[in-house]
């Protein structure tokens, strides 16, 4: 525990300094529950304080539920630790597979289904540079409230980025939000009322289902196909229902990784016109896009599309910066709502993102990230094929492959994964009706980890041992399909 | 415009570098609308680029609405500037005096009624130190999503602070939010439904009125007296209505600056028990408190009080960190709602605040801030008395004095203020019914500015000139009252 010092000159008591220092040490080193803390004697010697100080500090931490004392054995990190008591006992009972990966300690297991890039791909020096620059040179961003629409400089940068994607809008049509979920919440609150009917894709994003269900909205589901939402099903639903809007991922759909075909996109807009509904285009994975791709917002000339995106998947999920694009009138109403419900977003983090967009660092970071993801995607698809997995589609980019490995259901996949040190999330939550699913969402950025490889190999071996089943190295997907049915 | 350089080696075009650089310069130097920009020739020479590059950049800025070109005279900062087009034209039409000061350019006028501390009182080195420390040492806070309840280390620090105020709660009873408004929004959404009836103080916080009205809730107002809400009026209302909750500031009420008397606090809790309603104690100004003071949350033993506070008034309004305290069950439900509606708060800014709380810097910063405010409060009360203003009460601390200067109504106050370079906000918005008010909220931190002094003097002189009216230097408040009626 060399990370901290205690001093009599500090205004905090020695005990409190010890308590704070130990907490920081636990957080910084990601100490695991059950780990034994240094003995009282040892810590007292290290920090040059009396034994009674250390005992007091340890006891305070026990009373906080952070440590536990085991008779005659010493003090141990409690299970659940304060950090994890949020993350396990206190975790909201949300019908959402994505929460588990968000909130469970993953340091010991490979989180193969998670929705973010690996630690090693993060670029702390790039983000840190912008943070230091804003901190040093922009005291207003450090201290002042933001204006209702969000930092003008950031909105101008976003406008330029949109223009490069052929989405031409004025800066008054852009509203910054605390991320995509916040944008969705503002939209749901301002566009929908209980009992309204909306269209969602299934499989789709579980947190969106939760948000809409919390708003008392009726959800109609459309299957996601390789080309986008199932247009026939959509047309049939539109004969009977009058939905207010359709929620969709155009590019790199979560969880299937599929992207809209141009003809599907065009037809969607036609249907939105004819049946008078809005399309809410969630482009969370926009910036992972490498090359040509279709966005409804770029095709739209009738203000049918409300576009939503964020910097959470590329820069940082912690900063909480996203935005939405709609008509100027709508944006003005949403800005009012944003102000009343949160006094606005953080000018500081918006200025950090604007700095990264303005100085070209974001563009370069994206280049590196896309190259890594493209490589990982190609490799993962090869591996999955070799190990006899079935993929829903071959994504042209992004982070996710939706795949299954017949004849195994999720329970067995998860057992084998756990034995290999891999954590999986069930695909069930991605279906609106929570149906049993043998599909899982694989994050390609983690798929070449040795633990993932061990998982794939062990599963293939297990299948080979089953009578009548054999894993072809060439990936006999027809075969595995029939075994799955 | 020495703040930036352009280079052919940059991946952005020279024109775009100019555009970005000029925008940063405008923001950093707070250039005022109508200011003439450097001539094309001069900027081209400074930046060693061709004239056509500068023309292109200026024209792009014109097309963005940031500059305007005046025939034969050059380029000028447009009115409204992009920054201010949000802040004026795009500003939500919110019935809230506090928005104007939030969003209007104030660099040229003294914002005497605003709700934050002066630039010169900010402590960028203290906040900057914590930001750099988190950026350098805590990559998880820089990149990862937060857990639903908020950063455990911050919640532990908050728990300790509450304990020093005699509010004893477990860490599972604390939920971090994006500030007090966000906390209020979560509470309103989870506790209230349209048609429910709630109690608010009037005068009171306009944004709270807006939030409750947006939620379709019926508002019953109770006058704020020097001792807290008018208990007789409250008792009378409780004979006829069944309110779900009462919203209140215990300490340093906004806008009157008054604090609860212990007997009032005790009676409020009794009434909440008898009539089965919750009290939502908004303690936004908690940390400006210097010495003894009463909180409902510290008296409460029956889970009647939900406590809400933030670091916006002391550390930074930009970081957006606040919290609420309630029963563990309630907090768990609110955490779920927080997750679904925003995927959680920013771990980065929470870690910055936890650092400042943990290393003692926040406590020292508060000490300095309180000393400044106490001095400013005493001086402002002296000045107001000398200039013949009537004060609603003599606040024991905090930021605000609620005052009026008979016989002048707001319109005349505002005219004189404008002539002295002072910006005022009308007191009307603080009343639930938007009644005409001659009271204004004075922020004592700005009251010794020469522009404020000029305003007070000029007003006193004007009163002296009016027949039958005379400004007594000793502050004959009975006299000015009679003139006002």
TrEMBL record, chains A, B:
Residues 12-80 form the HTH gntR-type domain. GO terms for molecular function: DNA binding; DNA-binding transcription factor activity; pyridoxal phosphate binding; transaminase activity. The keyword Protease does not apply. Pfam families: Aminotran_1_2, GntR. InterPro entries: Aminotransferase_I/II_large, HTH_trans_reg/aminotransferase, PyrdxlP-dep_Trfase, PyrdxlP-dep_Trfase_major, Tscrpt_reg_HTH_GntR, WH-like_DNA-bd_sf, WH_DNA-bd_sf. In the C-terminal section; belongs to the class-I pyridoxal-phosphate-dependent aminotransferase family. This is PLP-dependent aminotransferase family protein. It comes from Pseudomonas vanderleydeniana.
